[in-house]
Amino acid sequence: MRFVLVGGSGYLGTLLSERFTADGHQVVNISRSGQGTRTAQGFTYGHLQPQCEGAAAVINLAGSNLGRGRWTAERRHEHITSRVESTKLVVNAISQCTIKPALINVSGSHYYGNTLVPTNEAMGHGQSFLANLCVQWEAEAMKANAFTRVAIMRVGMILDSSYGALPAMAKTMRLFLGGPMGKGTQFIPWIHKTDAVEAFMWAATSDAFGPYNIAAPQSVTFREFTATLGRVLHRPSWFRIPELPLRMMIGRMAELMVEGQNLVPMRLNNPHFSFRYPALQDALTNLLGS
Asked: pTM of the entire structure?
């Protein structure tokens, strides 16, 4: 089968490209820069519709980096428009295809805002900036539901020893400076990188539709997460960064750290998908060693 990755030159796109290629599938990567991933040829958005024609699925990962720079009004606008406008292009391209591919569109766990109660895919959206971003993003993607299958992947924090938040957290923990941020009671909807990739693989090759929480079934608070990380690295977890100085240092971007979601992957937890790393300690041990 042939799969199209839009915005696939980043971290997740690279993992997906390697996984699909390893299974013998053809992968086409389309990015604004025209740069391909290590295992996929690069194209620009001008090539989008011809490449979508007859593909099994389009996996849309496009969007600006949320972790880059302070969230000024201009940057917040960029974060929204980069996602909504690229998704609009993807939906329009699919609509023009004779043989229409499915659309697998990434979103985020912050769709739900800050939640303490178990939160499945049927729950409503939150009111924060990130929640509003996800709502607009998903609404644009769901327009394709009029003519093809659409799956929305509400991704939590992907755990990887060399990418994302985990390397920095592990480094501070090894320096005896590890601990929770904010109150520590906010939840971290984590997922091992292997399970995240397999979730996308399953969604692209099955009849999956609608929203999916892409997170492990055992949700933990920030305090529980750092305590588990400390056990894996044989370090104490005692150094807490209060919410106020964190907000003073990085502004509204602190939303990423002091708000969390108690995600329940209700729809992903089905007979056709199984988690390789459902428990946090096993996931961290695999990534960081015992």
From this structure: 0.90
